[in-house]
């Protein structure tokens, strides 16, 4: 238990020149900042690392989750633009590919830089949210950040929380849930890239993905030779010439709101990457004998922490009913993807658990709506939330947490923030959703007309 310490006994510099401040520069934050600036709002994007893009760049996730419902693109607008712009710069990716498209992280960093700054938003890197100030009416009156300049206060009319962990909303006093009923969280994954891979052998050899029961990952995980490879989870893509990206393995009991805990997970993740290289070099030598660990993620792959309590909570029943909403700001069709507990992963490896019994997948053309009320935290007047911490039940969070959905909710939140900033009340709960939906459609979003 830490001792109390009184801080901020002296004044700190204040920058109150912004209308919209977005905290967190992952997919949701990039789309939010770009959308707000596109509407003419003076917009600042604050990011804790030195690059935009979050898990797709600093986290080294090797592929986008699907952008289509098997019939058409449903994550359109700004999300489609980001994916298509990156894809056009990757010659080995087929132009017609829209599902599980590989990601070149370095190229994607520049795509996000140009998207955000191209609309006129300012970006402040290596800057961490440190405190949130509120008044008695549930209005954020300022935030305090930390960087090489020390402590600085910022004020805006509207704030968009794209931290992934709902830090701003939670620190402002917003209600939230976290994990399951016992507080358990989905496992984390530390992504990595292996370089000097024999491309021909990789592309024409055995399918390494865990859905292929003949993948060498099963022999690797069952051998006992690699104690840091705990299960058969092994997503992988050719992300650049002779470079294979891996979203592989799990690290359990990681709570990203606990920095000590996350620090230990990062150390373990880097050691795991080396074991994966050694295991693949032995069990698939044609492709990986001369490979090496080229890079490990600067971010841990976190699947869940806090979920805000919004004006509306998206439920599993909504998902199963393919529900539409009059105030929906995007559609989603990604499957319910809750990763296994350590005990379940062991049972799966031993053939005692069937993976498809744990997930639900839509058929072609099927999707559900995400209402605007999932982005508006109860009790907070001038805060919006986008990304994986929107208001939803835990099962649904296993679907809406992925990057295409984050891009879509981010674009809607940024546009709503800009609309709110033009009003005297600056109340995100009072946005005219018909205007918001109309403007999103004009910008290219996929929003079918409501019957």
Automatic annotation (TrEMBL):
* Keyword set, alphabetical order: Oxidoreductase
EC numbers: 1.-.-.-
> What is the protein name for this chain?
FAD-dependent oxidoreductase
Q: Which organism is it from?
A: Paenibacillus mesotrionivorans
């Amino acid at each position: 238990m830490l001792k109390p310490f009184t801080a901020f006994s002296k004044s700190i510099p204040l920058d109150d020149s912004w209308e919209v401040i977005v905290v967190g520069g992952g997919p949701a934050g990039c789309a939010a900042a770009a959308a707000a600036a596109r509407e003419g709002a003076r917009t600042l994007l604050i990011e804790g690392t030195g690059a935009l893009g979050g898990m797709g760049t600093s986290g080294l996730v090797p592929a986008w989750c699907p952008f289509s419902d098997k019939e058409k693109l449903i994550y359109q607008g700004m999300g489609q633009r980001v994916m298509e712009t990156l894809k056009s710069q990757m010659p080995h990716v087929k132009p017609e590919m829209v599902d599980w498209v590989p990601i070149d992280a370095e190229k994607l960093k520049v795509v996000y830089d140009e998207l955000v700054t191209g609309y006129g938003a300012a970006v402040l890197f290596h800057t961490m949210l440190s405190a949130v100030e509120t008044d008695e009416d549930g209005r954020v009156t300022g935030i305090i950040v930390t960087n090489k300049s020390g402590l600085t206060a910022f004020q805006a009319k509207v704030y968009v929380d794209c931290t992934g962990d709902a830090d701003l909303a939670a620190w402002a006093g917003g209600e939230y849930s976290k994990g399951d009923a016992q507080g358990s969280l989905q496992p984390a994954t530390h992504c990595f890239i292996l370089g000097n891979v024999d491309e021909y052998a990789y592309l024409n050899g055995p399918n390494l993905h865990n859905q292929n029961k003949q993948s060498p990952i099963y022999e690797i995980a069952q051998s006992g030779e690699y104690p840091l490879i705990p299960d058969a989870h092994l997503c992988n893509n050719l992300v650049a010439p002779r470079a294979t990206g891996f979203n592989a393995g799990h690290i359990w009991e990681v709570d990203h709101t606990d920095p000590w805990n996350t620090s230990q997970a990062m150390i373990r993740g880097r050691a795991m990457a080396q074991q994966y290289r050694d295991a693949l070099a032995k069990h698939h030598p044609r492709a990986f004998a001369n490979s090496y660990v080229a890079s490990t993620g600067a971010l841990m792959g976190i699947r869940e922490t806090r979920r805000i309590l919004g004006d509306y909570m998206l439920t599993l029943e909504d998902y199963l009913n393919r529900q539409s909403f009059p105030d929906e700001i995007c559609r989603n069709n990604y499957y319910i993807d809750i990763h296994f507990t350590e005990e379940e992963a062991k049972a799966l490896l031993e053939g005692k658990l069937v993976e498809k019994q744990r997930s639900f997948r839509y058929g072609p053309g099927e999707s559900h709506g995400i209402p605007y009320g999932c982005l508006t935290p109860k009790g907070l007047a001038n805060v919006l939330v986008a990304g994986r911490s929107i208001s939803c039940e835990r099962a649904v969070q296993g679907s809406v947490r992925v990057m295409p959905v984050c891009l879509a909710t981010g674009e809607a939140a940024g546009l709503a923030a800009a609309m709110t900033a033009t009003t005297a009340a600056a109340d995100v709960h009072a946005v005219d959703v018909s205007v918001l939906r109309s403007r999103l459609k004009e910008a290219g979003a996929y929003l079918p007309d409501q019957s």
